[in-house]
């Protein structure tokens, strides 16, 4: 994706008083936006739509910061919540766009008359709020997508303005799902812009609170050999990128599992019917085949997996 900035003085929004926090601008005035985040697709969409980006706060160490530094586009590195609050108070903007910002803002205290705060989130809200919804979509077998919503003082709890569903064929891994979800964030921002950032559209009226909330944790990434095969496969797939990885502990060692599949066979059932759940049936190359309560799990790419001898019962300690 190339870095392209489009400046435009054409009108890109309309006056609306239908919602208490809608943008209130003369018809000939360009929307002035403050962008805060860690990803690029929404910022690209904002430039494409002609929004005047008055300031960009790029999260320290994020892909967006690296990209902007290479491109020469002016930005400020965002390092803390107090820095963000000061920037919101001291920047002239009509629309705050948040996309991958790790800090929760006290929106009710910061918002001035005529301003609107929106967040773009990689899930179909109200489901899968929180920091890591793409992991959660895989782990819990939930649909994938992106949403644009009004910001309030909560975490991903404001009224939904627009959603984009991402259909994913079987076999997509976590890395691919990240890319699809982040691409959809740009599309849902365009959709929200076409709606003048107003919630309450017919297909969203049934949405209410609740839904799953998910952020990565050590417990979520821990493989439990008492779980069924299907759940274990989802758990491994949900964290299958470097820096994450589902894992299990045996004695004093932790083993990371990048890949896994189900193994089915009547002959294996006959030979290992009396084996305990969690028993290592085969150990070869970088692969372990382990018996679970409803089938066999083939785990591959395991560093130091050869240490675990066939017949070892993997406990969850």
Report on the architecture of this protein.
With 317 residues, this protein is of the alpha/beta class. Helices cover 24% and strands 23% of the residues. The protein has eight helices and 13 strands. The protein has helices at residues 41-48, 63-71, 81-90, 107-110, 133-140, 174-194, 229-238, 266-271, and strands at residues 32-37, 52-59, 76-78, 95-99, 116-121, 144-150, 160-166, 246-250, 253-257, 259-263, 280-284, 287-292, 295-300. It has a seven-stranded mixed sheet with strand order 3-2-1-4-5-6-7, with helices on both faces. A four-stranded antiparallel sheet has the order 10-13-12-11, covered by helices on one side. It has a two-stranded antiparallel sheet with strand order 8-9. Strand 11 (280-284) and strand 12 (287-292) form a beta hairpin.
SSE order and pairing:
Layout: E1 32-37, H1 41-48, E2 52-59, H2 63-71, E3 76-78, H3 81-90, E4 95-99, H4 107-110, E5 116-121, H5 133-140, E6 144-150, E7 160-166, H6 174-194, H7 229-238, E8 246-250, E9 253-257, E10 259-263, H8 266-271, E11 280-284, E12 287-292, E13 295-300
Parallel strand pairs: 1-2, 1-4, 2-3, 4-5
Antiparallel strand pairs: 5-6, 6-7, 8-9, 10-13, 11-12, 12-13
Helix pairs in contact: 1-6, 5-7
